[in-house]
Specification:
Elements (H helix, E strand, L loop, with lengths): L3 E4 L1 H9 L6 H8 L4 E5 H12 L9 H7 L2 E4 L3 H5 L11 H13 L2 E3 L14 E3 L1
Parallel strand pairs: 1-2, 1-4, 2-3, 4-5
Length: 129
């Protein structure tokens, strides 16, 4: 049975460059050929902003990253942004909040290692830690 998951930005980066940092469950998800991996355009914006301000050094392009994990692009839609209205302010990172809202609105599992995001399970977020 296949499932779709949205990769948190760090999960995408780790899947490509440091898979040992992912949990065994996350590795199983990423490596399962029946899993539809989704990379949000939000993650692309986060990567490019962090690269521009010097917080992230990498030689791969975002396209290279997406192709390295055989993922599909997931655009930010108005419904995703509007899902922020009902999202409790449990996490202050704006990129993570957008990714969380997107995962909830799309009913997708969110692959992350950020333990603080676990607080959103009550808001309907399915998490693969």
């Amino acid at each position: 049975m296949s499932r779709s998951v949205i990769l948190d930005t760090h999960a995408l980066l780790w899947a490509v460059s440091a898979p040992e940092r992912l949990s065994p469950a996350q590795v199983a998800i990423v490596e399962d050929p029946t899993t539809e991996l989704l990379v949000s355009t939000i993650s692309i914006a986060e990567i490019e902003i962090k690269r521009a301000i010097g917080k992230l050094q990498m030689t791969n392009t975002c396209e290279d990253l997406r192709e390295s994990v055989a993922a599909e692009w997931l655009p930010l839609l108005p419904a995703h942004a509007m899902a922020l209205r009902s999202l409790p302010l449990l996490h202050r990172d704006p990129f993570d909040r957008l990714l969380i809202a997107q995962a909830i609105a799309e009913s997708k599992t969110f692959v992350t290692s950020d333990q603080a995001i676990g607080q959103y399970a009550a808001a309907g977020l399915q998490i693969a830690l």
